[in-house]
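As agreed, record copied across for absentees:
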Amino acid sequence: MKTIVSSLLGVFFVMLLAGCGGGSGTGTAGDTSSAAKTDTTPASTGSTAGFKLGVQMWTFNHFTFVDALAKVDSAGIKNIEAFWGQKLGGGLPGEFGDKMTDDTRAKLKKILSDKGIQIVAMGVIAPNGAKEWTSAIKLAKDFGLSYITCEPIKTQWGLADSLAGAAGLKLAIHDHPNDPKNHHPHPYGDPDSVLEAVSGHPNIGSCADVGHWARNGVNPVDALKKLEGHVYGVHLKDVVKFNDAYAADTVVGHGVNDFHAIFTELKRENFNGMLSIEQESNWWHNLTDVIADKKLFDDEMAKLK
């Protein structure tokens, strides 16, 4: 996923290696260790789960936005998280982002409407300064987004929170893997770092990437409990090994994460946001993996009713 500040290219490089593009595994995981799992079932599961299922368009980053939409549609999914910088295709010029003209935006909205697909969020971005934050927020408002998935510069928490609040938007901080080979911890690699940003900033919360948490040695259910009330979105992802920043992606439910426990906890917290499938492997042929992810999601939702 691209950011919109060149100063964070190092973070983006780590993302490519360890999270967004670092995995090559698919199918049944090679390591089904229960280290990232939990047997704890909440006493109360709250109301019937009303989660939205979506796709993080980074999943199809080898394709244009329009071609990726066709894949999302064929999987029977109607919500997406757009990623900044994806070539539009379909006869439309440029990339998804704030540089799109009014004409291009109108045509893209028509394509989305014809397929009955909604952009719920976009990311992961890291604006630098009021001008870039304002431009990103205007784009989000133009397309009717609920939140922006981001990794804000720590000195700009107050600025970002204020601008988002004025626009009626939420900012969901995304967790990426650490980079232990280069002794580089990610600034939002654990839930405590996100809670620090949330404190005093009512429009900042979490985009809980449960796969990256597992890579960082963080139990996703424990992390969700820490962030209760502040989870705006989830990246639905599984990996083959716990506490390995470079662990490969795999089909959801075939790796280390216990998704029944994750969904049960989200239901207990009355989460009603979007869970975005982010399949970061098998890049050219991963539609079948996305469909398998959707099946697991549907099966688990049936259990929660």
Notes: The CA atoms of residues 254 and 284 lie 20 Å apart. The first helix runs from residue 9 to 18. Residues 1-47 have pLDDT under 50 and may be disordered.
